[in-house]
Amino acid sequence: MYRLCVRDHFMIAHSFKGEIFGPAQRTHGATYVVDVVFQRPELDEDGLVIDIGLASKTVKEVLAGYNFRNLDEAAEFSGKNTTTEFMAKAIFDKLAGAIGEGKMGQTARGITHMEIKLHESHVAWASFEGAL
Predict the structure, then answer these.
(1) H or E element: which one contains 6?
(2) What is the DSSP letter of 132?
(3) CA-based torsion, 31, 4, 129, 59: positive or negative
């Protein structure tokens, strides 16, 4: 399997519901480093997994929808705990949609799997990986 990763980041505020979250039940901030790994079994005719420029641009556009926002105020997340794990899947879904809409070019049509890894600190991360 060939893999290519692009990296970006975004900053949010949010809070969690539930005793398990302790002090994180209060509003707090997070800066996520995001690794998006695109995978395919064969390279395209140009020897690429994906166009890095288009992939980076699209990732930046998706993350801009969350950047500098309080996720508690986002209608799409109403009643949800926007944990790192949850956000990895939310970003996966948006990027999968962008691939389906052709926003990452023709080469992206050959992508069979994608992983979204959110680093919430230098010692902890969560990810979601799935087939496209």
Answers:
(1) strand 2-14
(2) -
(3) positive
Q: Say how far apart CA 78 and CA 45 lie, in whole Å.
A: 44
Instruction: Give the pLDDT confidence score for residue 64 in this predicted structure.
Output: 98
Residue 35 neighbours by CB distance under 10 Å: 16
Q: Specify the DSSP class assigned to residue 81.
A: -
* DSSP annotation string for 14-69: E---SGGGGGGGS-EEEEEEEEEEEEESS--TTS-SS-HHHHHHHHHHHHHTTTTE
For residue 110, give the amino acid letter. G
- Residue 106: pLDDT band (50, 70, 90) is very high
Question: Closest by alpha carbon to 14, among 120, 128, 127?
Answer: 120
